[in-house]
Design a protein that fits this description.
- The protein is of the alpha+beta class.
- The chain contains 12 helices and 10 strands.
- The protein has 3 domains: 120 residues, Butyryl-Coa Dehydrogenase, subunit A, domain 1; 107 residues, Beta Barrel (Butyryl-CoA Dehydrogenase, subunit A, domain 2), CATH 2.40.110; 137 residues, Butyryl-CoA Dehydrogenase, subunit A, domain 3, CATH 1.20.140.10.
- The longest helix is centred in the C-terminal third of the chain and has 29 residues.
- The two termini are 42 Å apart.
Length: 415
């Protein structure tokens, strides 16, 4: 990204001790980055058979068929060299910049492409494996992860722990050089279709943080049962996982015994900040659909309606600017910190407000499901509203994010 220098004056005026201040912000893409954007946009135009919204609106597509469509499209992207863009080439990546990766994600959303079935692996686990895994683990797991030959799910949440992840009880007991794991995990996204899980288990019951270890487990083995969980949206993308002496081999432990909490924080930071620019791009599409529906109904003529829309547009641009700031830090080699919690608060709570405004302004039209014959808007606002309710919980609740911001960013005392 190229450097844009912006002058601004401190609110106190020119007589203030600070005087005028110069701020440097990375907000503009280079010529090479814009050329890459054009290349990616053309690829989607020529290779995407039909948008994902059309697949979802096709009543003949079952959940399994939709996952198969997603898997096939991910393989096409991998063959074209568009996955693992900023990962080392020796592990199946492309050795490009993180900026290129985010440009791709934005075009992916704008094209309304099928979501990656392995997004948990690629967007969340993969970066953590590159940071903390061994060379053997990277070579073994990253190539099939990129090609969707192996789907990953996340084994963090537990019924008894809630948002207090360090209170997990899933136990790992030594069995020779390996471990046997017993316990229960819940809210495992893509669990019903996953082949592997990255999982936290307690190796020392007396040490709250230092007694947690990061394991990789194949799900096709005795001692593991994954049951689908039907969500409020009607989907069953979640699962709950029951482990009864499941085998975790020593070579599949990431890091050292007891380092799981540190590695988990890397995973969660990527999960919370994964929407650097992708989230605002998705919001652009939703807002365009909302404006179209309001124009058709005539409601766009009212001042109060335009004011509420303007607020949504302004908030989305603020989220985009924060994402660009986070992207600039990542492109300088920094790992996500408390700014990931700020961004997670931004996008998760915005999504809920956006859906609520759509329901208020579109009226009955917003209640027509995507597969309904009378629906005229492209966005299924019923689904988006119901799904948005999970945002302030997923990846660490909003309350947890505010605690992180208070403690780590603002230095406020905690009890």
């Amino acid at each position: 990204m190229s450097l844009v220098v912006i002058d601004y004056e401190i609110v106190g005026g020119s007589d203030s001790p600070q005087g005028r201040t110069r701020a440097a912000l990375d907000l503009r893409f280079s010529d090479a980055e814009r050329a890459f954007r054009d290349e990616v946009r053309l690829w989607f135009e020529t290779h995407l058979a039909r948008p994902w919204s059309a697949e979802l609106g096709d009543p003949s597509n079952t959940e399994d068929q939709l996952v198969a469509i997603r898997r096939s499209f991910q393989r096409s992207l991998c063959d074209a060299g568009y996955l693992g863009l900023d990962w080392p080439r020796q592990f199946g990546g492309q050795d490009r910049s993180i900026v290129d990766r985010v440009i791709f994600q934005e075009e992916f959303v704008r094209a309304d492409a099928p979501p990656l079935p392995n997004f948990i692996g690629i967007q969340i686990f993969g970066p953590a494996l590159i940071h903390h895994g061994s060379d053997a683990q990277r070579e073994r797991f990253i190539p099939p992860m990129l090609r969707a030959d192996e789907i990953w799910c996340q084994g963090f949440s537990e019924p008894s722990a809630g948002s207090d992840l360090a209170a997990l009880r899933c136990a790992a007991v030594p069995d020779g050089d390996d471990y046997r794991i017993t316990g229960q995990k819940v809210w495992t996204t893509m669990g019903p279709w996953a082949d592997w899980t990255f999982l936290l288990a307690r190796t020392d019951p007396e040490d709250r943080y230092g007694g947690i270890t990061f394991f990789l487990l194949p799900l096709d083995q005795p001692g593991i049962e994954v049951r689908p969980l039907r969500q409020l949206t009607g989907d069953a993308e979640f699962g709950e996982m029951f482990l009864d002496g499941a085998l975790a081999r020593r070579e599949h432990i990431v890091g050292r015994i007891g380092e799981g909490w540190k590695i988990a924080n890397t995973v969660l930071a990527y999960e919370r900040g994964v929407y650097e620019i992708e989230g605002p791009a998705r919001n652009d599409r939703f807002l365009a659909d909302l404006v179209r529906g309001l124009r058709e109904s005539g409601a766009l003529a009212y001042d109060d309606v335009r004011q509420r829309l303007a607020r949504l547009f302004a908030e989305n641009e603020a989220i985009r600017a924060a994402g660009l700031r986070m992207l600039a830090a990542l492109s300088n080699g920094e790992t996500p910190g408390e700014e990931a919690s700020i961004q997670k608060l931004n996008w998760s709570e915005y999504a809920r407000r956006q859906a609520e405004v759509a329901f208020d302004l579109l009226g009955d039209q917003a209640h027509l499901r995507r597969r309904g014959s009378g629906a005229s808007v492209g966005v299924d606002w019923v689904y988006e509203h119901l799904f948005s309710l999970s945002g302030p919980i997923a990846g660490g609740s909003s309350e947890i994010q505010r605690n992180i911001i208070a403690k780590r960013a603002l230095g406020l005392p905690t009890r």
